[in-house]
Amino acid sequence: MAARILIDRFSFRYGPDLPSALAEVSLDIAPGSCCGILGPTGAGKTTLLHALVGILGRHHPDSIHAGTIRVGERTFAPLPDEILFPKVGLVLQDPFVQLSGVRDTVSDEVLFTLENLGIASEVAQSRVAALLRELGIDHLASRQPSTLSGGETQRLALATMLIAAPEVLLLDEPTSALDTSAVERLRQIIESLHSRTTVIITDTQIDFSLPLADQIVVLDAGNLRFDGKPSDFTSRMNEFGDVLPVRGWREALDRLAESSAMQSHAADLLGKALGKT
Amino acid sequence: MRIEFRNVHFAYQPNLPVLSDISFELQTGEFLLILGQNGAGKSTLLKLLNGILKPTGGSVLVDGYDTASTSTASLARHVCVTFQNPADQLFASTVRRELEFAPRNLKRPDATRLVEEALSLCELGPSALQHPYDLPLAQRKVLTVASALASGSPFLAFDEPSAGLSQLERRVLDNLTRSLRANERGLLVVSHDLELFLPYASNVLLLRGGTRTFLGKPEQLLREDMILEEAGLRLPTLMRLRKDLGLPLLERAAGDPSILRG
To answer: Is this complex scored with an ipTM above 0.90?
Structure first.
């Protein structure tokens, strides 16, 4: 069962002398939907994901916070003080930090997640093999994780979370090091999770989330600047030119709307953003 | 001044080639954009530039020096390479000290100017006294680029410099790339970020499984979709959409008259 996420006037400061990382942010993310949280560096995107998975309060004892966070049936005031894994899975922005560093092969690194959840190894082995295939990294199964390239490491980091099939999947800038075909694969994987898993993607770009998201959120310096449907976002996107790379998008989307008969993979991808679905 | 790769081969382990028969040339004032799938050998290629790795076949010549017989410390005078993961590179206790390291050790007479220039061009002035690890990841990445810039080396090589960067830092990289091209520095960039770098590239090198599948002008790459597809890559969503619609694909920032059309 996918979980609804309800964030009510949530504020967070890392320390008494520091500015607000998030200021009275309220969000309602429907169960099984995909939400793209967009914004520049320092917007508060990572802080929000860390709050949802439960690592924020624990690691910052001097922090100041207010509001409430609800994940599924559980309400936390103001935020979870326990790690909510495996209900909530977070793929970190820096994939090199995600890996355990104690496993010798890619396949064992992914297996490590399931071992920690107490899943029998026969079942686990075949699930790992299937997931590595899906992510296009099955040819790396016996490689040592530390010898992988940046993009390969990012896909391995994803695998260590996807394998746990969390109800809520949090992806912190998941495509930063991926090549374009790996981006397509990830897009398909996230599409396949739709309605089963609540997915939140943070990004500084709009390319990846726009075709996937049911809800787009724009954060800037801790403040909520936009929360709505992708089609509403695209009609107002020029307002966010100071914080998001919207240059070139508006013109293309307007032209696309005029030439509705056009056959194009890119046009198909953007159905949601154009309000066609 | 130029960099030459002559039939370069490289393998980390015997019988597992990572790069095979790679040849290209780059002069100062040129910008080579290196593309390829994850694991195609792009980062390995950069590490061959300054002798961190030595070719297992063929040769790499930097300004006439054969990297096989020249120390990395000496090559640093000619080419400065950044790593993809800032944690592999940053070690100083402040941003300013990080920037001072290369020009001081290379005994550049204009070290102070180089540091100030890097601080200002990369907009790191306000963070000069901060610890690099207190900066957000995106700014740490910009710092790795800034420290290469401060080295004063004629050739600079960046590994995925824009990965994880937001609009704010991408603008810095955009300005920086323009300024480096105007100042006749030689640039090699490994990146998936076609939107940012393709407009500035003088040439594109496309790798697939460690071999060169394309070396040519960006315009040609954009005209012939198959070239990218055969290397397992595709244009980013916005570029594909604009291409389908017959809109100009790439424009350099305002003030630069040249526009690339696909």
So the answer is: no
